[in-house]
Amino acid sequence: MKLQPRFFPTMLFVLSFLFGQALHAATGQAIVVDQSIPYDGTAANLAAQLKSAGYTVTITPATVPASLTGVNQVWDLRYDQELSNAEITTYTAYLAAGGSLFLTGEHVGFMKRNNSIKAFIAALGGGSITYSAPLFNQTVQAPFNSPNSVTAITFRDCYGTTTAGTGSFITKDASNVGAAIVFGSGSLSAATAGALIVVWDVNFLDNARTPAESALSGNLISYFAARVASTPTRSYNTPVLTDWGLILLGAMFGLTSTLFLMKR
């Protein structure tokens, strides 16, 4: 069957639209600040999820880059390292500019790290959190129960807080002790444009993570991603084509060549 010429403009429009969607699949830049000695695949697993979401990912061991300009998401997984004054200054400026920051805390054996996070939250104007040992079984709160469906999660060795300051709980147990909290836009008086997530358990990213844990981390990425359009720190670097983008680009060139030859 010979394809009628009147269908070609429609085909070109459809291919152009799909190509544009594939082009924009490159969401932006993400940095994972890892332990000096990586822990059980946590950084690699997180990086894989970020890449799947369209991010270009850089893993930096042990230290926070001096500049976070153009970075859409920063994930600090150093559960046993307290935040330094220089890092707090860098992170405060990043959040004030509209950045999205994730911090890992840990169980009661890592209180230097936990207390530095608590002090950081207070300095940002996020109010006071009160540490307490939670139940590991936690209910996932909206909107973090989607787009990956997850209603409950069982952390393996977490810590938590009875209060979320000016933020809100991401997960909490039957006694309202939460192992994960979020400060969305407007929640931090010293960084109103930024968003901060804290989870007091690094194991939910490790090689033994459950489907529920993987779903939750994916939802945290999606929460940050939804803020990109209004984030001043958004990177405007040339987007990177996905595999589908390259395929569609080839299809467009092939169709254009066919049209040219048919007209000769």
Quick summary:
Helices cover 33% and strands 18% of the residues. It has 264 residues and is α/β, with parallel strands linked by helices. It has a 9-stranded mixed β-sheet, sandwiched between helices. Strands 5-8 form a two-stranded antiparallel sheet.
Topology (SSEs and partners):
Layout: H1 8-23, E1 28-34, H2 42-52, E2 55-61, E3 73-76, H3 85-96, E4 100-104, H4 111-123, E5 131-132, E6 137-140, E7 152-154, E8 160-161, E9 168-172, E10 180-183, E11 195-199, H5 211-225, H6 243-263
Parallel strand pairs: 1-2, 1-3, 3-4, 4-11
Antiparallel strand pairs: 5-8, 6-7, 6-9, 9-10, 10-11
Helix pairs in contact: 1-6
Tell me about this structure.
The protein is an alpha/beta fold and 264 residues long. The protein has six helices and eleven strands. β3 (73-76), α3 and β4 form a beta-alpha-beta unit. α1 (8-23) packs antiparallel against α6 (243-263). Mean pLDDT is 84; it is low at 7-25, 229-250 and 256-261.
